[in-house]
Amino acid sequence: MLETLHLSSFKCFETLDLPLGPLTVLSGVNGGGKSSVIQSLVLLAQTLEEREWSRSLLLNGTSLTLGGASDVINQATGRRQLSLGATSGDRKVVWTFQAPDRRAMALELASVHVNDLAVDFTGSIRWLLPEAEARECSIVSQIRRLSWLSAERTGPRELLPLLDAQHHRQVGVRGELAAGLLQWRESDPVAEPLLFQGEPPTLFHQVRAWMRHFFPGCDLQVLPIEGASAISLRLRSDSKLDFQRPQNVGFGLTQLFPVLVEVLSSLPGDLVIVENPEVHLHPRAQQEIGALLARVANTGVQVIVETHSDHVLNGIRLAVKGSQSIRADAVVIHFFARAADGSSQRLSPKIDSSGRLDVWPEGFFDQFDHALAALL
Predict the structure, then answer these.
(1) For residues 80 and 100, is the Cβ–Cβ distance under 8 A?
(2) Which residue, 85, 107, 103, is CA-closest to 94?
(3) Can you tell me whether residue 143 is helix, strand or coil?
(4) pLDDT averaged over the chain?
């Protein structure tokens, strides 16, 4: 598990050492830094995936496109370099990348520090480390198992991609590969703590059962299209109705579907990032998805969730209070705000075994209280 994220001169952060837990909740104002935290991890993951033998940070890849050096290097520092890294157990790895100028479209590896000691990387490089070091590095292994589902998810589509099984290891940044993943891995077992009782323990049946839990009467089909690299997702919102195109059912069904496929298919040791799981869900479903994410994090999958929903947070708090889903010390909460000088400011409320928070910062899921006070 990644325990701390280290950033220096990256986007809105001059420096940041961010604790991570089995379940990490990122919240806060727009532009406060939540997305930058996620992007730092995704940048490393896509570089390790797409540039295995490279010495540069891939700013523009298939998962994430961020532009050039001036877009990712903190402007306040005036530097031409940034650092990204993480700590796991007794190992800390920090990579520093530099650009010839702020217009550059690529950042080259300038130094690597392992446990604060500089590493000689003049020889063969793999996954941004000397090849022998890379094979044994748990941090590299964990970042390579990152799966990111962004807030900008694919809406209802007539057809979705169906590629070879290797390309469906994850649901895709926008969830576009979720139906294909379900097709290839339909018989995979789901972790026992996530099983919906009374249903077969395989991925396909568990996704269907959880969809019905969120939307009573809902069901789904995935149908490969003969002669085409495509698959059709069919849904219905009532068991008495025929299966329909996704365009003709509630929008929330197609937004929740990839979230469920992603978390139910994850394995211990995976790192799963979900942005705004509450999109197009009603409040009860938002609370339920928070509780489900807590259960996922209790199976050995590291979960990072970015949310603007107090219902998602309350689902996690209730899961902690129930004590069977997740321990209080396994949940880390961060609230990002803007300081008076425009810099990012982080506050981290602690949660206790009753689901209570020790502090409630101004702007932290308190708009309902402000509105109620104004009405009264």
Answers:
(1) yes
(2) 85
(3) helix
(4) 92
Tell me, yes or no, whether 369 lies in a domain.
yes
- Taking the C-alpha atoms of residue 329 and residue 355, their distance in angstroms, rounded to an integer, is 11
Q: What is the Cα–Cα distance from 155 to 148, expressed in whole angstroms?
A: 17
Q: Mark 281-317 as b/e (b = at least 16 C-beta within 10 Å).
A: beeebbbbbbbbbbbbbbbebbbbbbbbbbbbbbbbb
pTM, two decimals, is 0.95
Is the pLDDT at 166 greater than 90? The verdict is no
Q: Is 301 helix (H, G, I), strand (E, B) or coil?
A: coil
- Pairing relationship of beta strands 344-347 and 331-338 according to DSSP bridges: antiparallel
Residue numbers of the domain that contains 234: 155-265
Q: Please state the φ and ψ torsions of residue 330, each to the nearest 5 degrees.
A: -95, -5
One-letter identity of residue 280: H
Q: Where are the extended beta strands (E) located within 268-368?
A: 271-275, 302-306, 331-338, 344-347
- 216 shares its domain with 285: no
Please identify, among 265, 286, 316, the residue that sits at the C-terminal boundary of a domain. Answer: 265
